[in-house]
Design a protein that fits this description.
Length: 630
């Protein structure tokens, strides 16, 4: 790794006067949340672009499967904290950089409160789960910090910008079901879960019948470049000898040559015997794992055994009746399912090619979980591979639900996303005032969201999309909820004190729902409960896993019958701040007195509007006997 020479010339922006608009990377501080696939690339790019003050948060430790795409880590780092090792690697690249690691959970660690985020000019998400991204989104909105949310799914990715009150936040758009990503070397070499075998089976389908020009069409050939396969010379010689056979040709190329003289049994032996035998020569892969057992066609046709769960065989399977698709079948049955579905799909593929020769239709098949032949092929292929690796078998019913939600993790996409994210960061900083206390963007007209897409229908691979205004119905960034910061001692303050003393008595709400705004939708207190659970109400807030920075949404609606609540659809946000300086279990401090005043004004305004409506109704229907409220 070559260190940067900091004595080299710097761009003109570093010579700008202190009164000018825009911060240079050298003058800025950036918080990076996540040191995984995108995070490693991002930290490297930030350092090379002369960002000199960086904080890094990550909870995870390094695993061997990370090494093929997280390039700041080496084999000797396995088991160490990602944040710490990533920062050490960046310091070797750029000795003058000020980069600080934080090993901890960004959601639950009390260190990462509002004051922590306020230290930085800009926050960048490099996270792979929705809940953590939602939390960082909320924290940046609360302290008015610009946020770049970066992410990738296979060959697609994005770097989107979030500015409080000026753009959509992370929660403004409903999120689709989150897709899982898997390291390709795990899929090709060392599967350990049923889903790994299902991913492999879908890749195999595309090798046979899919679009060979599709970049998502991953090869299923055993990968000799697996980071764990650090073979000695003798092992390398053994692997090279095996590569002289036909079975060491790339599976993609082998299949193309096999399709003219199609022999399903030869295909079976190639995938489940030859390739598996080659994998067993990679001795380092099996030092701490069960070695796979190669399976020939003739042998497989005789196996009646099933692996149901926890190593149970078919003799131990529950006698509860199941639908055909919910049954775990024998290996012999999966062999027949594989051969039959392969025959059927080959015929369908040949027919599709004939149709395409005289029309504009595609020459390939597209996997569809609702197509029986497609599903049978993936089910059989996945379960045969699972049996070889000693993994529990999966029913056709479960394969159908799992197979539609999988994508590979791609190192190249992560690098592209990281580069775009750094460009986005420089654009944002150029719009920030030089003042250390003012973080208001001067203009966002020149800023856009950037997306990477391999979908041929969308045009260019890298596209700039205009920023959109906040969603008025978004819980997190709309103006409908009034944010109230409350300082309490979480280990002393009880749920009863929160609800009765703070929410009902102090904030004058009648009987609202109290919801934990962490993306889970978990209700802390329900307004529909007629009686309060005494045992629940005496518990302290930390017993509910509430912590410093937790956001609670208190919401009540106007009761037409009782007229008890004067606020129609009133919402108040509470942000809980923990402090050990408070020793009274019932004590709390409202940090934002101004907000409380605004809440009172809103209540009075809605109350006047409600009374005017009542007066109008009384005048219309009871003009003589109307009684004025004095």
């Amino acid at each position: 790794m070559v260190a940067i020479n900091d004595s080299s010339p710097i761009t003109n922006e570093s010579n700008q006067s202190d009164t000018s608009i825009g911060k240079s990377p050298e003058q800025s501080s950036v918080l990076v949340v996540g040191a995984g696939g995108i995070g490693c690339e991002l930290l490297k790019s930030l350092a090379l672009c002369r960002f000199r003050s960086i904080g890094v948060i990550d909870l995870d430790t390094i695993e061997v499967s990370n090494l093929n795409r997280q390039f700041l880590f080496r084999r000797e780092h396995v088991g160490q904290a990602k944040a710490t090792v990533a920062c050490d690697s960046i310091r070797r690249l750029c000795p003058s950089i000020q980069i600080e690691p934080f090993h901890g959970d960004v959601i639950t660690d009390p260190r990462f409160d509002i004051s922590f985020y306020k230290q930085y000019d800009l926050v960048i998400n490099a996270l792979d789960n929705v809940q953590a991204r939602q939390h960082v989104n909320r924290m940046c909105l609360l302290c008015s910090k610009p946020l770049i949310d970066s992410g990738s799914t296979g060959y697609n990715g994005q770097a989107t910008l979030i500015f409080k009150g000026r753009t959509q936040c992370y929660d403004c758009i409903e999120k689709p079901k989150q897709q899982r990503t898997y390291a390709v070397c795990t899929i090709r070499n060392t599967p350990s879960q049923p889903i790994h075998c299902i991913v492999w089976a879908k890749f195999l389908y595309n090798q046979f019948f899919g679009d060979n020009d599709d970049p998502n069409n991953e090869d299923v050939t055993p990968d000799a470049d697996d980071p764990e396969n650090d073979a000695n010379p003798q092992q390398q010689q053994q692997q090279q000898q095996q590569e002289n056979g036909h079975h060491r040709i790339s599976t993609r190329d082998w299949i193309q040559g096999e399709m003219d003289e199609f022999q399903p049994i030869r295909v079976f032996n190639k995938l489940f015997y030859d390739d598996i035998n080659y994998l067993t020569t990679m001795k380092n892969l099996w030092e701490k794992r069960r070695q796979p057992i190669a399976l020939q066609y003739e042998q497989a046709c005789q196996i009646q055994e099933k692996i149901i769960a926890n190593g149970q065989t078919n003799h131990e399977q529950s006698v509860m009746p199941k639908l055909n698709d919910q049954r775990i079948q024998s290996i012999r049955e999966y062999v027949q399912m594989f051969i039959d579905s392969l025959h059927e799909l080959k015929q369908r593929s040949d027919k599709q090619r004939q149709i395409a020769s005289t029309s504009k239709e595609a020459t390939f098949l597209v996997w569809d979980k609702n197509d029986d032949a497609d599903l049978r092929f993936v089910t059989a292929s996945a379960n045969l591979r699972a049996y070889i690796f000693g993994i529990n078998l999966t029913s056709k019913f479960d394969v159908k639900s799992m197979a539609g939600n999988i994508i590979p993790a791609v190192a190249t996409t992560n690098a592209i996303v990281a580069g775009i994210t750094v460009l986005q960061a420089r654009k944002i900083l150029s719009s920030l005032p030089r003042s250390s206390t003012d973080h208001t963007l001067t203009s966002i007209k020149h800023l856009t969201n950037v997306f990477i897409s391999t979908d041929r229908k969308t045009g260019a691979i890298i596209q700039s999309i205009p920023l959109e205004e906040p969603n008025s119905s978004c819980i997190q960034c709309s103006d409908l909820e009034q944010p109230v910061r409350v300082r309490i001692n979480m280990s002393l303050f009880t749920l009863y004190s929160l609800y009765e003393r703070l929410i009902r008595k102090h904030l004058k709400m009648n009987k609202p729902d109290v919801i934990i705004a962490d993306g889970s939708g978990r209700i802390l207190i329900s307004a529909d409960d007629d009686e309060e659970d005494e045992n629940m109400m005496v518990k302290t807030l930390d017993q509910f896993k509430l912590m410093n920075g937790t956001i609670l949404l208190c919401e009540e609606e106007y009761d037409d019958k009782t007229n008890e609540a004067l606020i129609q659809h009133m919402k108040i946000k509470l942000m809980l701040e923990h402090t050990d300086t408070i020793t009274d279990k019932d004590e709390y401090i409202i940090v934002d007195d101004q907000v409380i005043g605004e809440i009172k004004q809103v209540k009075q305004s809605i109350k006047r509007k409600y009374m005017e409506e009542v007066d109008d109704v009384s005048i219309e229907y009871f003009p003589v006997k109307r009684i004025m409220d004095k």
